[in-house]
């Protein structure tokens, strides 16, 4: 099973052909080998999302989505080549309808798409982010007894290897000590950062770069897009990569897809 996650930075913008070189997200969907794809920041209601992804849905992809509660913000979805037998939102009075978390059962596993909001140190926005983080961790604690993976844009760089300019971001949301400790505790509770497990002790691989300046060309990025898998699923992970565009002009999002290959249970039994 191959799982990809990508913050599309607005699905309606991502599907547009922005130039002769940039054909948008639809050609990527047509060519990807992924079985399941988690999308974040769709910024579209269910009707708009279905319309934008119509060619992919016509090709056989199944779709589950959680639309944003505020127009033009958040929104998550899961695409699967396999039937989706169930879908669930975050059970939260505050965040359940925000379009920041959606989990589905498909292909014999539980796959969740999550979008953790951008915070701002020492503001109400940061407090809101931290409240969401607490409720997300509580939900994830109920999934550790199954094969599950939570994919998405976490808006937190965990270690110095996960952000190019870590010295310049020590006091900024996304690299605050409390946020990083929260991820440390999440990993200690039984979750595995699959990409880091397969790419230990090295900078990156980054999956987000600012549109501004030469951040992309200089690979001055952040690794904030994770696939956190339960131990039962993580032991099946054999390869992970960031599908970085070959050139700035070919980007259809400020993020790049993060793709992990999980071998089948049958292959594990034969190994």
From TrEMBL:
The active site is at residues 115, 153, 255. Probably binds two magnesium or manganese ions per subunit. Residues 5-255 form the Endonuclease/exonuclease/phosphatase domain. One of its GO terms (molecular function) is metal ion binding. InterPro entries: AP_endonuc_1, Endo/exonu/phosph_ase_sf, Endo/exonuclease/phosphatase, ExoIII-like. Keywords: Hydrolase, Magnesium, Manganese, Metal-binding. It comes from the Bacteria. The record marks 255 as: Interaction with DNA substrate. Its cofactor is Mg(2+); Mn(2+). Mg(2+) binds at residues 7, 41, 153, 155, 254-255. One of its GO terms (biological process) is DNA repair. It holds the Pfam family Exo_endo_phos. The record marks 225 as: Important for catalytic activity. The record marks 155 as: Transition state stabilizer. Belongs to the DNA repair enzymes AP/ExoA family. This is Exodeoxyribonuclease III. It comes from Mycobacterium lehmannii.
């Amino acid at each position: 099973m191959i799982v990809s996650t990508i913050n599309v930075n607005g699905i309606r913008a991502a599907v547009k052909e922005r130039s002769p070189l940039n054909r948008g997200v639809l050609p990527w969907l047509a060519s990807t080998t992924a079985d399941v794809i988690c999308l974040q920041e769709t910024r579209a209601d269910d009707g708009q999302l279905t319309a934008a992804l119509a060619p992919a849905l016509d090709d056989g992809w199944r779709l589950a989505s959680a639309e944003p509660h505020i127009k033009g913000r958040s929104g998550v979805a899961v695409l699967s080549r396999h039937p989706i037998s169930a879908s669930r939102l975050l059970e939260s009075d505050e965040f359940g309808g925000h379009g920041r978390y959606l989990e589905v059962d498909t292909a014999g596993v539980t796959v969740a798409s999550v979008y953790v909001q951008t915070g701002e140190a020492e503001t109400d926005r940061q407090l809101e982010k931290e409240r969401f983080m607490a409720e997300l961790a509580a939900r994830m604690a109920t999934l550790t007894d199954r094969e599950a993976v939570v994919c998405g844009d976490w808006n937190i760089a965990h270690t110095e290897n996960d952000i190019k300019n870590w010295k310049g971001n020590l006091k900024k949301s996304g690299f605050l000590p409390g946020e990083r400790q929260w991820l440390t505790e999440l990993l200690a509770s039984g979750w595995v950062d699959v990409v880091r497990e397969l790419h230990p002790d090295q900078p990156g691989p980054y999956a987000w770069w600012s549109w501004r300046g030469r951040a992309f060309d200089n690979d001055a990025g952040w690794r904030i897009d994770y696939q956190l898998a339960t131990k039962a699923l993580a032991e099946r992970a054999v390869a992970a990569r960031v599908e970085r565009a070959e050139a700035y002009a070919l980007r259809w999002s400020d993020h790049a897809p993060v793709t992990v290959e999980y071998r089948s249970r049958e292959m594990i039994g034969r190994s």
